[in-house]
Amino acid sequence: MREHEKNFLANEREHDQTMETPFLLEVKGLTKHFGGLAAVQKVSFEIRRGEIVSLIGPNGAGKTTIFNLISGVYGPDSGDILLDRQSLIGQRPFEVCQKGIGRTFQIMQPFPHMTVLENVVTSGLFGRVPKISMRQAEEEARELCQLVGLGDRQGAFPRNLTVADQKRIEIARALAVKPKLLLLDEVMSGLTPIETGEAIKLVLGLRDHGATIFLIEHVMKVVMGISDRVVVLHHGEKIAEGTTTEVANDSRVIEAYLGERIDEREEASC
Amino acid sequence: MDWPSFFQSLANGILIAGLYATVTLGLTLVLGVMGIVNFAHGELVMLGAYTTFWLFALLGIDPLLSLAMSGVLLFFIGIGIYRFTIRPILKDPPLNQLLLTLGISIFFQNLAMILWKTDSRSVITSYSGMSLHLGIVHIGFTRLITFLIAVLLTILLVLFLHKTRPGRAMQAVSENNTASWLIGINVQRTYLLAFGVASALAGASGALVSTVMYTFPMVGFKLSLKAFCILVLGGLGNIPGALFGSLILGLTESFVGTYVPEGSGWAEGISFILLIIILLIKPTGLAGTRRE
Amino acid sequence: MAAAILMIFYPKLVDSYFLHLTVATFLAMIMASSWDILARTGQVSVGQAGLFGIGAYTAALLFQKAHLHPVLGMLAGAVLAMIVAAGLGYLTLRLRGIYFSITTIAFAEALSVIWLMTPRVTGGAMGVSTPPLFGGNREQAYYLILMILALVIFTVWFIESSRLNFAFTAIRENEEVANVMGINPTRYKVLAFMISAFFTGFAGGFYSHYNTYIIPYEVFGLGISIACLVMPIFGGLYTIAGPIIGTILVKAIEEYLRVTFSYGHQIAYGLILVVVVLFMPEGLLGLWKRRILPLWGGVRP
After folding, report:
1. Among C170, C173, C180, whose Cβ lies nearest the Cβ of A97?
2. Count of C-beta atoms within a 10 Å radius of residue B230
């Protein structure tokens, strides 16, 4: 990683860093119902600064709902979410973003009529507090595009790019807000083995420079390879939490994934 | 408390609600089945009203009998509109759908102005002035018949949706069109039929409109504003909600007309006020939504 | 540069009728461009007549009751329209797009009803008269409207080159994602609506004095709201030139039709909307860029 890349991460955010707690994110008793269905039930976990934590679970377990709750897209029915000891409940998505959370979307949603560069500039202009100038946003956006590997495609429009490139746009956009916490929603799915390797390198590099990363992933090889800790969700409830080894050997986790052997999932994702 | 006035207002409110309901049902059907807000629905009603008027003026056919003819005519006009303008944009963003149906609406409004001038027409039958006395309440004969026909049309629609195959197909499609397609329902044909039926309903309500109101090019526009208000009041794409909303609007207009000084003039603006209030309190409508 | 000089000397070059036509066209351009400003956030207003009418009546009534100078009256109209838009926008722009559009239609209609029901204050159905603007001097009227049009175009250019452009475009393309990226959608939508309202209100104020007579049916009428949107849509949305070109063409069509039909000439508007949505969603400018320019270049982009 190069020198300028350090600048994109939490360390440079201009505000007080409350160092009293090692926990960057605390989720307590989070519950959310849709209609009569409980999408998320009393989920609690913490994420420490500088960690890479993965959120896994079978389809429909509630993982993206958790992301939506954290980023303010939905409000929970009960429970609390604390970022640096400050509650995020009741904050609207743009406020949550400005407090330091950047996220990507599982179904890529770049702004179609903006170029790659413009997509990233947009986040930089509005997600950052205090606001930066257009020139600065553009400079940083260029560097970010380089960082994620889109340096030579900055002027392209998203619809002409590959899946992997569109995921890069998502990541660059999320980084542009200089987040304390980066939420990555299935950035590894649909990538070739080479692209997956590049993505892993990128994520690890981000962590090395102080980012805290929370990711939803299906590709088990990646999860086991890069996570410090893993949180497992099933039918909206947390069924396990711990290091990768602990979780891999947890009987409840294995049961939840019954019928979906771990190596089968790896093959499917290539 | 002046009970006679109260009950008279109540009666009038209910009677007009019947008309509003028939106007709104077609709009609700299209919204529920296809997810499109048809801004031109009012104009279909207007065309139905003019059809009835001309059949009456030129051929002497009683409006309440020519209702079926208006219905049939508008059914085919609706199918035509659907086939050539709506079907291509089914998957477009709502903005495009809005602009397209708005364009159709403007087209018909102005076409009516060109063909039939802007004068208001009335359908005066031999029984137009008659009224019945039910206790302390006077009910215009025409209004009563209109209301009864409105109720009949509503019942027919509900029976159609629940007891016939195409009707049940429409219900299925409005819930989930992918699942419907998977179980073999011809979604495209269902859309086409739904639009046709909705247009036929519009035509029939136009016939009713011509008997209790004036017929003029903008009558559809005025009614569609009320229909939108009802949609929002009652929850979108759902029939009981449309009936409920019609009742609320009809009663509110009637009571305002009676109890507020110069109320009959203000009553026209009621739909806007109600619309704003509901949108503020509960953006998804009072009775909940089946589909947004 | 040559165009600017032409614009300045224009009144000397043409006769009174054409000058009048030009003033009317410039007025329409102002309204078309203003509509486009809000459209950039993805919101379709079908009730610009409400704001136009507020501007018109503010200017006319302030002149009638307080003898306020016409241009000040127009400014007052613009400001009042802007304030009303702020309130209405704050309440309704937080809702899904189609609800907003429905509300704007109802808004203009409701104002019409209110005006008819309060004749003592507003003149009611009889309308309000004012003496001819600048004593009938069309040249001065021309320069005033030209200035305002220049201001509007400058405003749009300014928006396009500022960060507002990113905000508006992001909101328009994907409001939920824009929100998650730190953009407060309601704030920017309301801002766009207010800017749009200011110029539309001014246009209304100008119209009331220029036309010397206004009635609710006309200035709050659906026809004005429709005109405001057909012109930019026909020409090409989200551009500076689109609304301008669209206005010129639509006005030309309208003039031709008005001679034939006294009522109902807006039938063309309906047809234009349908044709544009079905066949040329990017308007004339889009058509030009995609189909005609490439013919000259020989190669499709």
Report:
1. C180
2. 31
* Dihedrals phi, psi of A45, to nearest 5 degrees: -165, 165
In angstroms, the Cα distances linking A61 to A38, A54, A141, B276, C282 are 10, 14, 35, 39, 42
Under DSSP, the state recorded for C131 is P
User: What type of residue sits at position C91?
Assistant: L
Q: Tell me: pLDDT of B285 over 60.
A: no
Give the model confidence (pLDDT) of B178-227 as tens digits.
Answer: 777 777 788 889 999 999 999 999 999 999 999 988 999 999 999 999 99
The one-letter amino acid code at C23 reads: V
- What pTM was estimated for this model as a whole? 0.90
CATH number of the domain that A80 lies in? 3.40.50.300
- Which residue is listed with tokens 């449309």? B242
Domain that holds residue C62: 2-244
Structural domain count, chain C:
1
Task: With CA atoms as reference, report the closest residue to A229 among A80, A65, A25.
Answer: A25
A to B contact (≥3 Cβ pairs closer than 8 Å): no
Interface test with C, best of B114, B266, B270 (most C CBs within 10 A): B114
Q: Is C286 inside a domain boundary?
A: no
| Residues ≥6 apart with Cβ < 8 Å to B138 | B8, B131, B132
Residue of C nearest to B110 (CA): C264
Minimum CA–CA partner of A95 in chain C: C182
Look at strands A181-185 and A212-216 and give their pairing: parallel
Distance between CA A243 and CA A238 in Å, rounded? 15
Q: Tens digits of per-residue pLDDT, B9-53?
A: 898 899 999 999 999 999 999 999 998 999 999 999 999 999 999
Query: Residue C271 and residue C279: Cα distance in Å, rounded?
Result: 12
Q: Which of C180, C187, C188, C191 to mutate to test the interface with A (most CBs of A within 10 A)?
A: C180
Site of tokens 């508007």: C269
CA distance C241 to chain A (A): 18
Query: How would you classify the pairing of strands A212-216 and A52-56?
Result: parallel
**Length of chain A (residues):** 270
* Residue C184 to chain A, least CA–CA distance (Å): 6
Pairwise CB contact (< 8 Å): C181 & A73: no
Cβ atoms within 10 Å, residue A42? 14
Q: Which domain holds residue A156?
A: 3-269
In a domain, C279, yes or no: no
Residue C262 in domain: no
pLDDT tier at A224, thresholds 50, 70, 90? confident
Domain count, chain A: 1
Residue B90 contacts C, CB cutoff 8 Å: no
**Residue of chain A nearest C186, judged by CA positions:** A94
